[in-house]
Write a structure and sequence with these properties.
five-stranded mixed sheet, 34% strand, Immunoglobulin-like, alpha+beta
């Protein structure tokens, strides 16, 4: 908590002056997870933050779905930041960060939040991931960041058409995605179809879903989940 207090002082001592630059933007993506995943990684993306060297924000979420914030780490353009966070209040994460020098890049992934999931999740459960009071700046200016909150939804990997079952209909749906058919896959359908998690849809995904249909045992499902 002492480190958080020091960073909080540093950020709030910066005078709030008009900079003439575009307002910084921060956003969280739409994230999907399988009930058995155990944890998820949520990247925090930013734009128009060049010249900033400090910031803070809160993240509000449902502790009925997310059991614990495991860690927060810097990524890409935020790699030189020192950060600290407070996760003592279930359902709320508070993060502060600062660097001796300003950011030279203004667009990219600033940091990543690792969230542990509750063990008894059901398909269809959703929690908003809400950014609150996000500010970034430097010794000359502090701006409140335009926030775009995200969402975490529980879905079943392999259930391409999202009907709650893994069947031959899912093979047909993923085939549509690979063939770029007239009815393109939605974001969640594409996530569910990417069963090998390589972020592209190929024949290997079809083969893995077929294996689950032919061998619907918990052991097989766990192999493909891991």
């Amino acid at each position: 908590m002492k480190r958080i207090a020091i960073l909080f002082w540093f950020i709030n001592m910066s005078p709030i002056l008009g900079s003439g630059q575009e307002t910084p933007i921060a956003y969280l993506p739409q994230i999907y997870c399988d009930p058995g995943d155990g944890s998820v990684l949520v990247p925090l993306m930013v734009e128009h933050v060049e010249g900033c060297n400090a910031g803070q924000f809160s993240l509000v979420y449902s502790d009925q779905i997310i059991s614990y914030i495991d860690t927060v780490r810097t990524l890409d353009i935020g790699s030189n930041f020192f950060l600290d966070f407070n996760r003592d209040n279930p359902g709320t994460l508070f993060v502060v960060f600062a660097s001796p020098g300003p950011l030279t890049e203004g667009v990219g992934a600033l940091l990543e939040i690792e969230m542990l999931l509750q063990s008894d999740l059901d398909i269809g459960e959703i929690t908003p991931l809400t950014l609150v009071d996000f500010s970034m700046g430097n010794a000359d200016n502090v701006d409140f960041v335009t926030e775009y909150s995200g969402q975490l939804a529980v879905a079943k990997r392999g259930d391409s058409n999202q009907d709650g079952r893994i069947t031959v209909a899912d093979l047909a749906r993923i085939s549509d995605g690979i063939a770029e058919a007239a009815s393109p896959l939605s974001h969640i359908e594409r996530w569910a179809s990417d069963i090998n998690r390589d972020e592209i849809l190929t024949m290997e995904d079809i083969e893995l879903i077929a294996a689950i249909i032919l061998h619907p045992s918990p052991v097989i499902r766990k192999i493909f989940r891991d």
